[in-house]
Amino acid sequence: MKNRAYIPQVLNYADCVVSAYSKEEFRRCFRINPTTFHRLVGELRGFIKDFRSITIVKQVLIYIKYVSSQMTLQAMADIYGVCKYSVFQIVRDLAVVICEKLPSKYITWPSRNQFPRIVQKFKEKRRFHGVEGAIDRTHIPIHTPREFRKNYINSKSFHSINLQGICDSDIHFLDVGS
Description:
The protein is built from 8 helices and 3 strands. The chain is of the alpha+beta class. It has 2 domains: 13-102, no CATH class; 107-177, no CATH class. It comes from Mytilus coruscus.
């Protein structure tokens, strides 16, 4: 049997380190302010539950960090002291819940009357002219599907689905889809 290399983990990272962050540190690390984060946790409580002794708060931290960074599943597992498969399941399950249960409350497409203001704010804040929204995407890892396997292989050679988001100049989501 091959010995696995010891990989140090940060014990209680979510409970000890993250809880000590200032509002600015939290926003810089997770790209969401703490008030919005806790509101999201409250909204998700009705749809998810503790998973393998991983609290809902920790699950949402894992999900938010994963979709707001380019960290690998293994790096996330090492930081949060969970297995790689748990990170995978949390990211997948929360992506589905958020896209299916919460979009109408948090994600709204602007009216025609709102677009000129959005364009103006992009120009003022970022010096982007004629911009109505910023678009980005991330890969959500999935298990290898039984059918159409090749359709789900991404440019990094693993199976995933794309999660795409469009934001306005204030970084509010206008649209999210997979």
